[in-house]
């Protein structure tokens, strides 16, 4: 084959120097406003929130001893601990005060509600000498109406149930005129009937309307 690749002759001219010398100049430093830790990438004052504080501190001590002193000198740590515990203390106090105030307000509201609530025992004449007794308002004193109704049924050996009155409110209706006994039971806090102040109970009478039979 005639084709013979000749090796190129060494060029006579001066060889161009390689573009980058082995020891490249340091990259130009960008205008640094904020210093970032090379270990955890946070600003040094936040290194403690990273997971590499020990290495962060080593780096800072090496590269920025002045900052290291600022953040980790005994005085700095002392000041910081003092501040932190004071902050923590203040926060704790505030939190517990808030909690207390909240609980107090809640108890206050519940108490006000109770005190303005009223239990009415109403004797209602259904027919000639036939009565029912309707008790309204016990639920405001955290009394379970069903349990109370059952207690009345047992006590008086008569019908007793929770029903809605004309206003759509729950009340207990007991067969028969047992209003005096019911009053006594509530005043005495018998069984589930606890927590109603005497002054919050009243007995009323609903007479049969004239003309009816
Ligand atoms: Zn760091």
3D structure, described in words:
With 213 residues, the protein is an alpha+beta fold. The longest helix is centred in the middle third of the chain and has 43 residues, at 74-116. The protein contains 5 helices and 5 strands, in the order H-H-H-E-E-H-E-E-H-E. A hairpin with a 5-residue loop joins strand 3 and strand 4. The chain has a domain at 117-206: 2-Layer Sandwich (Translation Initiation Factor Eif1). A 5-stranded mixed beta sheet has the order 3-4-2-1-5, covered by helices on one side. Bound molecules: zinc ion. Zinc ion binds at residues 37, 39-40, 42, 47, 50, 56.
Q: Please, what is the oligomeric state?
A: single chain
The overall pLDDT average reads 81
Main sheet summary = 5 strands, mixed
Termini Cα gap? 139 Å
Q: How would you write the strand order of the largest sheet? A: 3-4-2-1-5
Overall spatial form: rod-shaped
Write the layout of secondary structure elements.
Blueprint: H1 53-63, H2 65-72, H3 74-116, E1 119-127, E2 130-136, H4 145-156, E3 160-164, E4 170-175, H5 179-188, E5 201-206
Parallel strand pairs: 1-5
Antiparallel strand pairs: 1-2, 2-4, 3-4
Helix pairs in contact: 1-2, 2-3
Residues 37, 39-40, 42, 47, 50, 56 line the site of zinc ion.
């Amino acid at each position: 084959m005639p084709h013979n690749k000749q090796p190129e002759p060494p060029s006579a001219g001066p060889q161009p120097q390689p573009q980058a010398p082995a020891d490249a100049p340091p990259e130009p430093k960008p205008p640094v406003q904020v210093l970032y830790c090379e270990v955890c990438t946070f600003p040094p004052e936040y290194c403690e929130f990273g997971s590499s504080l020990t290495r962060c501190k080593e780096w800072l001590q090496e590269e920025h001893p002045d900052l290291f002193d600022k953040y980790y000198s005994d005085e700095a740590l002392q000041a910081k601990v003092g501040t932190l515990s004071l902050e923590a203390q203040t926060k704790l106090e505030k939190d517990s005060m808030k909690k207390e105030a909240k609980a107090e307000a809640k108890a206050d509201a519940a108490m006000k509600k109770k005190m303005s609530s009223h239990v009415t025992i109403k004797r209602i004449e259904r027919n000639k000498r036939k009565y029912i007794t309707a008790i309204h308002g016990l639920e405001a004193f955290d009394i379970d109406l069903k349990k109370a109704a059952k207690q009345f049924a047992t006590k008086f050996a008569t019908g007793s149930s929770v029903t809605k009155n004309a206003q759509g409110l729950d009340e207990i209706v007991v067969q028969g005129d047992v209003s005096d006994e019911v009053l006594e039971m509530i005043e005495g806090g018998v069984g589930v009937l606890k927590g109603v102040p005497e002054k919050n109970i009243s007995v009323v009478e609903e007479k049969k309307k004239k003309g009816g039979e």
